[in-house]
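$ run holo --ligand "zinc ion" --emit tokens
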Amino acid sequence: MTRILAIETSCDETAAAVIIDGRHIISNVVATQIELHRRFGGVFPEVASRQHVLSIQPVIEQALHEGGIGHVRELDAIAVTHGPGLAGSLLVGVNAAKGLAFASGLSLVPINHLEGHIYSNWLIAPGRAEPVPDDAFPAIILIVSGGHTELVLMLGHGHYRRLGSTLDDAAGEAFDKVARLLNLGFPGGPAIQKVAEQGRADRYTLPRPLLHQAEHRFNFSFSGLKTAVFNLVRQLEQAGIDLADGAVVADIAAAFQTAVAEVLVHKTLDAAIHHQARQVCICGGVSANAQLRELAKTACAEQKLPLYIPPIFLCTDNAAMIGAAAFYQRQPPHMNSLAVDVFANLPLPEILSTY
Ligand code: KG4
Ligand code: ZN
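-- output --
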């Protein structure tokens, strides 16, 4: 039995969790900073790192306590996100983890945040029938978060090939920017989803970026879509249409959400069929989106492809997924914990293969 304490502070959630054998969540504590950043309309990096400093100790203590861990030495290892993310935020988690590992003599496992999102689908959790089986490779992974949109072919544990990514804005970033444009507040994804429920997706026509461009078959672009929403809002305003009218905003939100979800699902399925994937996994904050989940479910069912999406609480940033990723690491853990550093732009580790 391997017990890992995982720590995650890459953006605006201070999180710690205790995970057994990469699958079982013994405790999972997330202190969100959403209220703190709301008045800025987005994550304010300096404010985020200062809040991490305040929250990190109590969050770790709570995770250990809820996990029934009396002393850090009862653990087998400590895992921490070391990138990508906000450097100042990452530093708080990494320094806390280094201190604990150094003092206890435990090994420290530095984890890539994107790899963490991937392994959120390996966790056993209420609200999910069953997690990903260990041997079902190759898998197609769509990572959709506030900072990333990546389509990845996973050939085994830690064995990734990046098929494509966004050329500009990430999907979550597009949700956040369009929400700001429509005065719906922060974070944009849940806000858009909520108003879109009352809207009609077919009242306004928005583009489906890069949907049928062969040279960008597995890439995405959301910046033009955001501009299309901006132009639509301007046109409507010039035509004297009142945007304070909730129905208009709901229809725009529905059209936007549908455009994003359709492009994401189309390209993911195209990649899955092309690479003869045995399963499809979607993860990251945007995978909490109800319409994306529904469209993906229908499309995968049509192709008889197993689909895995985490329950909502594991879609957005958390430390449980970092603990799962740590368990499946192929390289031996870092014995010199003090050598672990942060990398704001850390890419997903790729093993180049001829597959
Ligand atoms: O994975 P995450 O928590 O943080 C990053 O690693 O970036 O993702 C946050 C992103 C935000 O852009 C947020 O608007 C989006 O996930 N998000 C959603 C939903 N819930 C969160 N987007 C669409 N629909 C949602 N329900
Ligand atoms: Zn994330």
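-- notes --
The pocket of KG4 (ligand 1) is lined by residues 11, 145-147, 172, 175-176, 187-190, 193, 284-286, 288-289, 316-317 (CB under 6 Å).
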